[in-house]
Specification:
The protein is of the alpha+beta class. It is 36% helix and 24% strand. It folds into two domains: 2-103, no CATH class; 108-220, Ubiquitin-like (UB roll), CATH 3.10.20. It has seven helices and eight strands. The strands form two sheets. It has a four-stranded antiparallel β-sheet with strand order 1-2-3-4, with no helix packed on it. Strands 7-6-5-8 form a four-stranded mixed β-sheet. Helix 2 packs antiparallel against helix 3 and helix 3 (56-71) runs antiparallel to helix 4 (85-98). The protein is flat, with a radius of gyration of 20 Å.
Length: 221
């Protein structure tokens, strides 16, 4: 096991793994016998290093949990309120399952001889948050490899926002995800496709009438 740029690389199977070390967190919290305080929850969350967003579906859980604690005005050394204990338990179980995750470091063995390389970016939103996920599709003859490349997730603002606005925010996040992917790789992507299930956002983007309010105009552009 080697440590590379903060992540763990298993040289035996050439996979990236997650090994968590929760320093200064009580054993009773790690054993699941006691709910953490707000300070301990932040300490656990900050111990998770995931630069590629491979655990975005897990890390978004602690973001939402911490946001709920701010809404309830919980102090730093107060325990998680009883109404959030189930949410904490579900997230903690997800963290335990992430320890068994191993992501192949190589996108595809066919990459050097690929006939077609496609980048697919999926965006979506809900009342809680929004996210963008990038997949690489490598094709040669009749063989296709689909690989998760990276992902990003965000919580919905505390002040509240409509679903169409959040879907638009997700589309912007997807566009921002594309730029570093194309810049940081030494192979050429033949085609990039963005996927959204929001017809409203798609119509905004395709509209020839640009008489939008400032919020929409900036993000559509």
């Amino acid at each position: 096991m080697e440590k590379v740029l903060g992540m763990y690389w298993n040289t035996a199977n050439d996979g990236l793994e997650f090994h968590f070390k929760f320093h200064k967190i009580g054993r009773d919290v790690l054993d699941g016998t006691r709910s953490p305080t707000k300070r301990e929850l932040l300490g656990i969350a900050m111990s998770i290093y995931d630069p590629f967003g491979l655990l975005a579906n897990v890390t978004v859980g602690w973001k939402l949990l911490l946001q709920s604690l701010w809404k309830l005005r919980v102090q730093w050394d107060e325990k998680i309120p009883y109404q959030l204990e189930e949410q904490w338990s579900m997230w903690w179980r997800s963290i335990q399952s992430a320890k068994r995750l191993s992501v192949p470091r190589c996108y595809s063995a066919m990459l050097p001889v690929a006939e077609d390389i496609q980048l697919h970016i999926f965006v979506d939103a809900s009342s809680c948050g929004y996210a963008a996920v990038a997949y690489l599709r490598v094709r040669r003859a009749n063989k296709i490899d689909d690989t998760l490349v990276c992902a990003k997730s965000r919580c919905a603002p505390l002040k509240g926002m409509t679903i169409p606005r959040l879907e638009l925010q997700a589309a912007v996040l997807g566009c921002r995800l594309k730029e570093p992917l194309e810049r940081c790789h030494d192979f050429r992507v033949d085609n990039t496709t963005f996927w959204s299930d929001s017809k409203t956002v798609i119509l905004w983007i395709r509209s020839t009438n640009r008489n939008f309010k400032q919020f929409f105009a900036y993000r559509v552009t």
